[in-house]
Specification:
Blueprint (H helix, E strand, L loop, with lengths): L3 E6 L5 E5 H11 L7 H9 L3 E4 L7 E7 L2 E11 L2 E10 L7 E4 L1
Parallel strand pairs: 2-6
Antiparallel strand pairs: 1-2, 3-4, 3-7, 4-5, 5-6
Length: 104
């Protein structure tokens, strides 16, 4: 069983988990700028500024949280009915197109 760094409830009703192995993969190989930013990632999932549905896959949701001049984007996908997991996360200047699911 995968060990999780955290499991939080999204403002739109489902739970999101971040597995320890997934986080290692993200910060080691994909987005090393996120190393040590677990708290910001968790906060982005619990208190996002915006949640959008991916324009490429309706089941994938993108959470955005402002971080100065850029945004932290956390991408989640369904694992089970009310359970999602973090696919990846990264810093970006642009918010992707897609249906707005939630805004604060």
């Amino acid at each position: 069983m995968a060990r999780n760094l955290f499991r939080v409830k999204s403002p739109i009703g489902y739970h999101v988990t971040l597995a320890r192995d997934r986080w290692r993969e993200i910060v080691r190989f994909k987005h090393p700028a996120l190393a040590g930013r677990e708290r910001e990632l968790k906060n982005c999932l619990e208190h996002p500024k915006l949640i959008r549905q991916s324009s490429k896959d309706a089941t994938v949701h993108l959470y955005y949280s402002p971080q100065g001049q850029i945004h932290l984007c956390v991408v989640v996908a369904p694992e089970l009915e009310a359970e999602y997991f973090v696919v990846t996360a990264y810093f970006t200047k642009n918010i992707k197109k897609g249906i707005e699911l939630w805004t604060s």
